[in-house]
Amino acid sequence: MKILFDHQIFTHQICGGISRYFYELINKFKNYDGMECELSLEYSNNYYLKKLTNFSYKTFFENFSFKGKYRLLNTLNKRTSKKCISKGNYDIFHPTYYDPYFLEYIGNRPFVLTIYDMIHEIYPEMFPLKDNTSKRKKILAQKAEKIIAISENTKKDIIRFFNVNEKKIEVIHLANSMNIAEKIVVMNINFPKTYILFVGSRGGYKNFNLFIETISPILVEDAEVDVVCIGGGNFKEVEKEKFEKLNIANRIHQYSVNDNILAYLYQNAIAFVFPSLYEGFGIPILEAFSCGCPVVVSDASSLPEIAGGAAIYFDPKSKSSMLSSVKKVIYDKNLRNQLIEKSIQRLREFSWEKTAKKTKKLYEDIL
């Protein structure tokens, strides 16, 4: 059985959850008898692909930025994908994102579509009017042989918005890639001693603004507690102005770090808070679990499905609910220890091995 994956996500992401997902699938599949994978790609600067030795590709101006770089990169890679798809030398095609360019080249070969979330459909006002992600996604969802939803919650949303037959959708959970070895790291950054951890982008549905407004009284009243933000880029001027108004400008810090240092930060945080209004899955929850970090999380969308009984929940639209839950965890060591114990058990429900085996079974069922 030969599976063809395309260029899309490895063109657009240097690192990120979706490219990590496909990297982990391909990495597992190479050890399965009867499984062969091909990646239609000529150029990529993706971090994870560098770990795969069974594909050849070139980097593309890796250390240079210029206007139109990613548009040119996508054009070159799409040309390669069209050629590979047209040849038909594969059993199943699995696109890595939602561009329907391949429909006129695939013939009668089946394709599997992974849908990661329905954020564009639930919060369309958070995206530019010219954003056509939802339209493209719907076209492919209707034509795909099978759809992989990464959570039961995402499956329900797909059915609600796209009116797809539920028998066409298979729920296959993701996992996380942090391990014990990645926690052993020599630090040369002077991080705060006691901190609440926030991971990821901060805009829109990520709910960062309400989160920081909500916990600012903790930072003002307790000189020992800071906030560490990982990823999302440097703070914007509007964010800095907000911190000044809240009198917490020197208590909130942003860093861009690799996975080793991120694991260290999870391991040493007093709590990881995930206030998102919507997530298709929520890999950071599992990352926190794997590093022994207590989790305080929104009770919205897929998050309770993933965290189970190993987290403390709050209403992401309620300041009082969020503040109460965060305080409960950061000021109760026994509760934090209980959450860590529960998270060890919960983490056993998720692994990339399970993800790969269920995906392989789905492919086999199609053939």
Topology:
Elements: E1 2-5, H1 8-12, H2 17-29, E2 36-39, H3 69-87, E3 92-94, E4 112-115, H4 119-122, H5 133-143, E5 146-149, H6 152-162, E6 169-171, E7 195-199, H7 208-221, E8 226-230, H8 237-246, E9 252-255, H9 259-268, E10 271-274, H10 283-290, E11 295-298, H11 303-307, E12 312-314, H12 319-330, H13 333-347, H14 352-366
Parallel strand pairs: 1-2, 1-3, 4-5, 5-6, 7-8, 7-10, 8-9, 10-11, 11-12
Helix pairs in contact: 2-14, 7-12
Task: Write structural notes for this entry.
The chain is α/β, with parallel strands linked by helices. The protein has 2 domains: 2-175 and 351-366, Glycogen Phosphorylase B (Rossmann fold), CATH 3.40.50.2000; 180-347, Glycogen Phosphorylase B (Rossmann fold, 3-Layer(aba) Sandwich), CATH 3.40.50. Helix content is 41%, strand content 13%. It is built from 14 helices and 12 strands. The strands form 3 sheets. Strands 9-8-7-10-11-12 form a 6-stranded parallel sheet, sandwiched between helices. The chain has a 3-stranded parallel sheet with strand order 2-1-3, with helices on one face. β7, α7 and β8 (226-230) form a beta-alpha-beta unit. The protein is globular.
